[in-house]
Amino acid sequence: MEDYIYKRQNFNQREKLRKKRRRRKIFFSSVGVALVLGAGGFFLRNTLLPKLQEAGDSFVKAPLPEAGNPGEAPKSEELPEVKEFTPKRPAEKIPAEKTAPEVKDLKRLKEGSNHSYEASAYAYDTRDVKAWMRGRKDFEGEKNLAFLTFDDGPHKNTEKVLDVLKRHGVPGTFFLLGDNVDKNGTPLLLQRYIEEGHGIAVHSYSHDYSYLYPGRSARPDRILEEYEKTRTSIRGHLGESFDTHVFRFPGGSMSWKNMEEAQNALLAEGIVDIDWNSMSGDAEPKNRRPATSEAMGAYAMKTFRDNGDRKVAVILMHDVQKTTPEYLDHLIDEFLEAGFTFGILK
């Protein structure tokens, strides 16, 4: 009996030891599996996955082989070598005035014309003015239109006439004699005509009736000769870009014979002549000349109305006359009060 009990105790002890060893084996096996799984996850995340992703990107980016060449390996494009930019000199600061757009001087001579760029706004074609003045064509402007014209300059009185016009802010057209341009003209004076908004026209070179109209009959060749000579004299002061297509016959076209031939000769060169339908009387004989400055201004309006009272007035004056700068204020006021605006001939 005692022997049985002893054996039973030994069996129980051995069974406990066996269970203990099994639990220990299971524990260490679990720890090993956990370590293996952890190491595998670390390897998958840090080593295997990046390689798989890189291989996938290479597959997507690889170009397909061209049609007709199956199996041909795609050629990789060789990019040109990019050189680092090195400036040859340090950056230069540009002054502000150099970056601003160029502004055209509107008071300078408009090329190929007899006036400034600014004066283009009130420069009228002489053909039209001539037709309006003679009633051959209706003037459709809202206001009456006046042209202040001055013959025979330049002269010592010219600067005074220009001063009066500047004070009133009105323009005029100056019919110059080439001989006086050569004697009295200066670049400063000729430039003043342009810069102050006036027009320049030709009134022959010599104003010599016997040469231009021998036997009171116009000589077209001599008239063209003197026109060209005068224009050349003006260009000597204003440059070759100056040109004018406006002419007035000395004494007016109504005073001579053979005028149609002379006018056609001018027209063939693009030159238009023009007379007047109003005058101040400054060149009239003393027995017909108005006695005062105020009377000369009134006389210009009277002669305009006597000649048809149309909407366009071309007023004859002479800047060589001493009285011209004296009566000019009154004449301008007469036409301003009558609702006239002022233009130049081109």
TrEMBL record:
Q: Which Pfam families match?
A: Polysacc_deac_1
Tell me the GO molecular function terms.
hydrolase activity, acting on carbon-nitrogen (but not peptide) bonds; metal ion binding
GO CC term, one of those recorded: membrane
Where does the source fall among the domains of life? Bacteria
Q: Which Gene3D superfamilies match?
A: Glycoside hydrolase/deacetylase
Q: Name one GO biological process term.
A: carbohydrate metabolic process
Q: Quote the protein name from its UniProt record.
A: Peptidoglycan/xylan/chitin deacetylase, PgdA/CDA1 family
